TrEMBL record:
Keywords assigned: ATP-binding, Cobalamin biosynthesis, Nucleotide-binding, Transferase
Enzyme Commission number, as recorded: 2.5.1.17
Organism: Paenibacillus allorhizoplanae
Protein name per the record: Corrinoid adenosyltransferase
SUPFAM superfamilies from the UniProt entry: Cobalamin adenosyltransferase-like
Domain Cobalamin adenosyltransferase-like: 3-167
Gene3D superfamilies: Cobalamin adenosyltransferase-like
Pathway it works in: Cofactor biosynthesis; adenosylcobalamin biosynthesis; adenosylcobalamin from cob(II)yrinate a,c-diamide: step 2/7
Keyword Repressor appears in the UniProt entry: no
PANTHER family: CORRINOID ADENOSYLTRANSFERASE, CORRINOID ADENOSYLTRANSFERASE MMAB
InterPro entries the record matches: CblAdoTrfase-like, CblAdoTrfase-like_sf, PduO-typ
Catalyses which reaction(s): 2 cob(II)alamin + reduced [electron-transfer flavoprotein] + 2 ATP = 2 adenosylcob(III)alamin + 2 triphosphate + oxidized [electron-transfer flavoprotein] + 3 H(+); 2 cob(II)yrinate a,c diamide + reduced [electron-transfer flavoprotein] + 2 ATP = 2 adenosylcob(III)yrinate a,c-diamide + 2 triphosphate + oxidized [electron-transfer flavoprotein] + 3 H(+)
Length: 189
């Protein structure tokens, strides 16, 4: 099998159920989830398996689920096959958020993205995830989508925020509060 097909040379690409322009909202949405997956792979490559034995398998699962998101976003009509992203995947993210958040110190103010290499890269994942979510919202205005993809990406960005803080905590690096922030978060109970 050859990697190149030449079928996209005129500016169109194949999706499940047809062909669309390469700058179509659908391609922008699933292309950005692919970009996010690449940044996540980079973040994982910076993680010491001794410090992240629990998180690395969770992130590998997220990588597979991002492929599922892309597959659902590439589907022109839902009747072509069942959607892959489900509410259970969103529920699992929420459980992970609670688990990793319990490990970190309380925050009451916004924090600046950064810290160590792992945390910084996870913050990049968070912001790319938010962009993917915005693109999915745009796509949903005019085309059929799996609404669970939108929910998944929304929760995933919260997950990235949480584990970026977890990474700083495990690396012994304090989060830096935004100095002009009011108290916006409640303390954990």
């Amino acid at each position: 099998m050859k990697i190149y097909t030449r079928t996209g040379d005129a500016g169109q690409t194949g999706v499940i159920g047809g062909r669309v322009d390469k700058d179509d909202d659908r391609v922008e949405a699933y292309g950005t989830t692919d970009e996010l997956n690449s940044f996540l792979g980079q973040a994982m490559s910076f993680m010491d398996p001794q410090k992240y034995p629990d998180l690395l398998p969770d992130l590998l699962q997220v990588q597979h689920e991002l492929f599922d998101c892309g597959s659902d976003l590439a589907l022109l009509k839902q009747d072509l096959r069942p959607y892959k992203v489900t509410a259970d995947m969103v529920d699992a993210l929420e459980a992970w958020i609670d688990k990793y958040d319990a490990e970190t110190p309380d925050i009451t103010r916004f924090i600046l993205p950064g810290g160590g290499t792992v945390s910084s890269t996870l913050h990049v994942c968070r912001t790319v995830c938010r962009r993917a979510e915005r693109l999915v919202v745009t796509l949903a205005r005019t085309q059929e989508i799996n609404p669970e993809v939108r929910r998944y990406l929304n929760r995933l960005s919260d997950f990235f925020f949480t584990i970026a803080r977890t990474a700083n905590f495990r690396e012994g690096i304090a989060d830096v509060e935004y100095i002009r922030s009011a108290e916006v978060f409640k303390r954990k109970s």
